[in-house]
Amino acid sequence: MASIMSTVTLSSILLIVLLSSSAANAQLSANFYANSCPNLQTIVRNGMIQAVNRERRIGASILRLFFHDCFVNGCDASILLDDTATFTGEKNAAPNRNSARGYEVIDTIKSNVEAACNATVSCADILALAARSGVVLIGGPSWQVLLGRRDARTASQSAANSQIPSPFANLPALISSFAAKGLNARDLTALSGGHTIGFARCTTFRSRIYNDTNIDTNFAATRRANCPASGGDNNLAPLDTLTPGRFGNNYYRDLVAQRGLLHSDQELFNGGSTDALVRTYSNNPTTFSADFAAAMVRMGNISPLTGTGGEIRRNCRVLN
Asked: Family, per the entry (predicted)?
């Protein structure tokens, strides 16, 4: 498939990524559960196959859960925690409320993992593996998921509100928010390609289709038909106009044609420093797949809890 890079090329890129990982992240390992839960990856993959077969969109939803988890105090499964008497969690933060989904898929996979390997595998690692499987199942590239994360014992709604990039952000703000997580502008541009799959709510793109000037007029008119100036906040539109259910590089072709759905999407191709990279990805799906895979490895390495940090939750929604 043209949209999938060669194994040799991807392996070479990931080797460079892994060699450049920080000492803190060196505690993660691809074979962390080789002895303690050898069937882990098969269990997660089978769970995602069932979920994607029921609803193809869930691949995008699980990828988004992983992204939103990692951007709030690291990849620690804090997004999966329900509120408690001692903290208000991330599920009802503005970026997640009414839009984050797929929690029940992770619950089911976790139950299956617990049945095979009791109190062994973290929810954070399950979410990381599920995100990769979701992408692969809808036509995207694979990558090596490093394992050994532990689960947070708290969550922060305020951190989720402030640390997850906004769909209304401009390019400098996006670059800054990614830099705060150790990711550069290339990572930003590649990871934004996750919007090649999935949908967005009217409330997240209304201001763009009514107010932005860097937008194709026919595209804006089409989107206004399902997103009125008032009301219809939960009406959905595809983030990729051409192939919203299949992973590929058409998202970048939309940006070049000024058909990015979110303001933050179109900011990647709006006369700024990421324009050239967007053009490259729009013309070269192999380069996009390689960069996306490498960026997913880097994002998965954001501030993991390891060793004796955190815990291994038995239920991803609650503390032990």
From this structure: Belongs to the peroxidase family. Classical plant (class III) peroxidase subfamily.
